[in-house]
Amino acid sequence: MNILFAASEAVPFAASGGLADVTGSLPREISRKGHNCAVVMPLYSAITEDMRIQYGFEFVTNITVDVSWRKQYCGIFSAVYNGMRYYFIDNEYYFGRNGMYGFYDDCERFVFFDRAVLEMLRSLDFKPDIIHCNDWQTALIPVYYNVYYKYQQGYDRIKTVFTIHNIEYQGKYGKEVLDELMGIPQYNAGLVEYDGFVNMLKGAIETANQIVTVSPSYAWEILDPWYAHGLDRILVTKNYKLKGILNGIDTDTYDPSRDEMIPANYSAEDISGKAVCREELHKELGLELTEEPVIGIVCRFVKHKGIDLIRKALEDMVAKGVKFAVLGSGEKIYEDFFTEMAARYPARVSVTLGFVPELSHRIYAGADMFLMPSVSEPCGLAQMIAMRYGTVPIVRETGGLRDTVRDNGGAGGNGFTFKTVNADDMTDAVKRAYSTYRRRGEWEELIKRAMLCDYSWAASADEYIDMYEKLLSDTGDEAMV
User: Fold this and answer.
1) How buried is 284 (Cβ within 10 angstroms: 0-12 exposed, 13-18 middle, 19+ buried)?
2) Beta-strand (E) ranges in 285-404?
3) Boundaries of CATH 3.40.50.2000 in the chain?
4) pLDDT tens per residue, range 188-245
5) Which fold has domain 2-248+459-473?
6) What is the spatial distance between Cα 443 and Cα 426, in angstroms, rounded to a whole number?
7) Residue 36 to residues 60, 65, 111, 126, 150: CA-CA distances in angstroms?
8) Which of 101, 188, 210, 461 is most exposed, with the fewest beta carbons within 10 Å of its own?
């Protein structure tokens, strides 16, 4: 099979979150299993001239792309990284900026990108059987395919897959963009109109052959208004093509037995190096070196990550001896809270604002527990990385956290869980973890169970391949609306 992954970011070229990790890892794993994968993304200014030389960028061709009534230049470049072919869509006006998102004309920028992805296929030797789109920035690809390309020569029999990484981000705009930017005929406007707006994510849900979420639990959670951010009504009608497949993690990058970013290497067979990492983390962050556990937090400081629960309970937990190693950034109210806690309890709370990859590895390796009290979590990678490093997760049962962490109170437990969005329930889970931590033999067994969990991309890639093959063997057209 030939599979083209379309995304707004991908490791190692441009990244702002988990989407880049997925598009940097999943296609490579599918390629290892004998299929031909490629990735297409914008050529941002962050991809510097030095990077282009480093990765051997080559100019392929240039084409013209329609953005409603406009005709825009589009350059196509390519590079090979880790055996994977990457294509880059170039337009200085749209992508030669300082940053990837958050501009007043994001709608126009990604309308251009989505049309360019389909137009460039005329100029490539690579002819996809599947176009796998990711998040709202690529949501118009299946829409444009159904409206303009499906019956054109060379485009027949292509299937489209769309992954919802976080349903909160939908690409919502006023209806004026239909004519002014998108160029979608009025008789097709219903594909993207929803609740009085143009909703790009809704368009993909309508027209893609398969809708995927990044964990099985998230697939059924987003049918509930609590999680769906208004899209539950359309998702319920398209439930027949909705599937959840758990994300994996890059087990080469996150491997405590070989990680060069941590003070000592270790494995499930010999965890002695973790004690060295723990001691060094205390020294690096200025925490008091005591027997009480260190809880790691590595995340964006936003509401859906459950930071409000931490705000309510952190001082009580510190009073009981728990220490915190916090790394992240986000909303100012949360940054100010953590900064204040670090100032008030310098021997118990360490806070680093921003994202420092090397420090994140050392927190994963040196902390005893890892806290993720998310209100919603489509998949979550941090809890899987923490387990890989033998740092026991404490999570709320939602989305991918439910699918990956089993409470230690049951058989085969690999962490601690709680159910409700409630600070007392979270604190109770921390207390249970602390109680087990004091029983050193039991705790070490728990560490080893967590480390032996397999959350690599291999199993997930098999599910994707099976899904692709079923789509291609289906002669019907589930995307017709």
Assistant:
1) middle
2) 294-301, 323-330, 349-353, 369-372, 392-396
3) 2-248+459-473, 272-454
4) 999 999 999 999 999 999 999 999 999 999 999 999 999 999 999 999 999 999 999 9
5) Rossmann fold (3.40.50)
6) 19
7) 19, 26, 26, 9, 22
8) 101
Extract the tokens encoding 455: 């959350």
CA 300 vs CA 16, 76, 253, 330, 350: distances in Å: 11, 33, 21, 5, 16
Cα 97 from Cα 92, distance rounded (Å): 8
Please, are residues 416 and 429 in contact by the beta-carbon 8 Å criterion? yes
In the block, tokens 């009480």 appear at 292
Q: Which residues pair with 10 in a beta bridge?
A: 14
Which amino acid does the sequence have at 116? A
In tens, the pLDDT along 342-363 reads 999 999 999 999 888 899 999 9
- At residue 10, φ and ψ (nearest 5 deg) are -160, 135
Helix (H, G, I), strand (E, B) or coil at 59: strand
One DSSP character per residue, 106-152 reads HHHHHHHHHHHHHHHGGG-S---SEEEEESGGGTHHHHHIIIIITTS
- Name the CATH topology of 272-454: Rossmann fold (3.40.50)
Orientation of helix 18-32 relative to helix 457-473, angle to 10°: 70
Q: What is the model's pTM?
A: 0.91
